[in-house]
Structure prediction request, 493 residues.
Amino acid sequence: MSEVRNDVQAYTLRLELVDEPGELLRSLQPIAEHGGNLLSIFHERGNVTPRGYIPVEVDIEATPDRFDNIVEGLSEAGINVIQAGTERYSERLTIILSGHLIETDLSDTLTQIEATRNATVTDISLSAPAGSIDVSSARLQLAAESGSTEDVLSAMRDIADEKDLQLVEPLTVGGRA
Amino acid sequence: MRLCVLGAGAVGSAVVELAAEHGHVVTAFADSESAVVDADGIDADAVLSKKREEGVVGDADPESVFDADYDVLVEATPTTLGDAEPGFSHVERALADDRDVVLANKGPVAERYADVRALEAESEGTVRFGATVGGALPILSTIEDVGPSRVSAVYGVLNGTANFVLSRMAAEGLDYEHVLAEAQDLGVAEADPTFDVDGTDTALKGVIVANVLSEGETEYTLDDAEVEGIQELSGSMLDLAAEDGQTIRLIVEVADGAVRVGPRLVPENGAVAPSGTENAVQIEADYCGRLGITGQGAGGPETASAVLTDVERLAD
Ligand SMILES: NC(=O)c1ccc[n+]([C@@H]2O[C@H](COP(=O)([O-])OP(=O)(O)OC[C@H]3O[C@@H](n4cnc5c(N)ncnc54)[C@H](OP(=O)(O)O)[C@@H]3O)[C@@H](O)[C@H]2O)c1
Prediction:
């Protein structure tokens, strides 16, 4: 028992919610479901991101394992996790993938990214220009564990290589992500 | 100073035209087939119009320039890969005669840096090459002033043609081929823009920077760079970037002993997203943090002015 207690840590989740009734409640469900203890909610009402989302900061307590499940649960529920934890997922990076995205199974690509363990996909934007059904592009937003940007990008290069996709990386030299 | 100018293209011709303004005399001038030598200084206007009208600079043999009286050899022949010839041999001959050398040609310092430095060590002459990276922008001289050992990273845009193509694609939502054709019509891109768009030109500049930063510890050549071009980018990829306040530019990164070139996502109005044909680099150094240099890099007169600045430094 005491071992488990010691394992509990405080985490901050930064979410971006669609401006619709019930969204906040919906975002809290995965937290409860996966055994997180809600500490506080900071709802920045009136503050809207450039893309029309409402930023929300949620402080919770959970074991690292449960926290992973919570972040996964939120992503699965379609909720934008911008930042998760002070330690984990503190770096945000954007990439663009292009090529036969659909044919090479986009959802498998996303699963492979999630499987790298130090990153989670928080947002995806797809563009398939009319007239070219086979070549499409996607912008992915990833939240990466702090200090793991290089690892995440190198995993992305492998995935892109394997699927013959073009990867546009963010400029990361000089500590900029 | 008395100058011997090799190469009568955009750069070499502009050096000949601007030399007098800077207080120098051109005593020898050659293109690939002809030369003109005059110990009192060649008549710049006459020679340049001869080149324009007849395609030659004079009646002398190109070899004769090496016997001329000169203090500084200005090397502005085409940049070549591998053995970096004919530029390398020109450098070798000038140094063997204890003359100074100023390069616009990237080949010798990108592909044979150690050889050039070894020849320089045996010679009374000095080699300067500020014009090879960013043309008129004082990138190498800033690194020299800050001290190469204090610089931890250099990154940014060093090819105006690629930058023009990408900024047009972003602004107009057009595809690569379309914009490239337009750039060729405008004279911004050359008839064969391969090295500009496939990243080779940018990589050569990155390799030169890496050679300067390593101060002789490691020699870099084009083979050591990881290079990706912009040919595969589409208008929709730039649109996706723009939706997130970003854009895509052909970026060179020189850091941690590695040179990488490729399209990168950068903030739309950030320090390394210059407009049109401009170049923009960031130099990260101890004590000064991040230094930015942005402006019109390439072009005949621009590059010639950088060559003449190097000549000035040799005179000091
Ligand atoms: N243009 C720029 O903005 C810029 C910026 C930075 C660096 N650079 C570098 O500066 C150099 C010159 O550029 P550019 O734009 O002036 O090139 P360019 O217009 O192609 O001119 C090259 C000149 O070199 C001459 N040449 C070729 N082989 C020669 C030889 N063996 N001996 C003497 N002359 C020879 C050519 O002679 P012919 O006239 O007989 O063909 C031509 O006049 C290149 O290495 C380039 O990479 C250029």
